Amino acid sequence: MTSNNKDKQTIVEYIQNWSRKHSLFVMAYGTGCGAIEIPATMTSRYDAERFGIRGAATPRQADVLLITGYLATKTLKRVIRVYEQMQDPKYVIGFGSCTINGGMYYDSYNTINALDRYIPVDVYINGCMPRPEAVISGFVQLQKQIAEGTANNAAKYKENLEWYRANQKKIIKNWRMPDYNW
Ligand code: SF4
């Protein structure tokens, strides 16, 4: 955001955020067709690792949850568990039009429309499907927010948990998992 936000950070926070933005371990949840762009983004042609972006093996090791397209209502339950098991600080990127408004599946009976009604989204990358340049641009956007200290949606999720839970339970009929996953 503004340079004022930067100025409000202590020197320790500034260094922490500078380090975080250059070390983003990504849990890529390949929910939709956009997942096919991830190998191209990560391998030598686009080489996302030069920005400090690399894959994580488990939610506990991940900083960023990348949702790559449409999300089936059944998969939403697993995505919520993965998100809640990630350690703070953590971020979410919604990748593709389907995460923003349902895209071509907006009227489908078994997919969700707006990802940010269920988990907090820091950056959306629009397109159907977004090319690797757009994916990298989305990550750079997230890095800016981290550097400025404004990527704090994980805290907002906890503050507004009742609202998120109500939305989640409206969709997930067979909830049957702990109400508190972290
Ligand atoms: S936005 Fe397009 S490419 Fe991405 S999941 Fe939806 S339909 Fe597939």
Describe the protein's architecture and organization.
There is one protein chain. 42% of the residues lie in helices and 12% in strands. The chain contains 8 helices and 5 strands, in the order H-H-E-H-E-E-H-E-H-E-H-H-H. The protein has helices spanning 3-8, 11-21, 37-42, 73-85, 97-101, 132-148, 153-159, 161-171; strands at 24-29, 53-55, 64-67, 91-95, 123-125. A 5-stranded parallel β-sheet has the order 2-1-3-4-5, sandwiched between helices. Strand 1, helix 3 and strand 2 (53-55) form a beta-alpha-beta unit. The chain starts with a helix and ends in an 11-residue tail after the last helix.
Give the helices and strands, then pairings.
Blueprint lengths: L2 H6 L2 H11 L2 E6 L7 H6 L10 E3 L8 E4 L5 H13 L5 E5 L1 H5 L21 E3 L6 H17 L4 H7 L1 H11 L11
Provide the number of structural domains: 1
Main beta sheet, described? 5 strands, parallel
Number of helices: 8
* Distance from first to last alpha carbon: 30 Å
Tell how many strands the DSSP assignment holds: 5
> Structural class, from helix and strand content?
alpha/beta
Summed up, what is this model?
By secondary structure, this protein is α/β, with parallel strands linked by helices.
Give descriptors for this structure:
about 180 residues, alpha/beta, Rossmann fold, 5-stranded parallel sheet, 8 helices, 5 strands, globular, binds iron/sulfur cluster
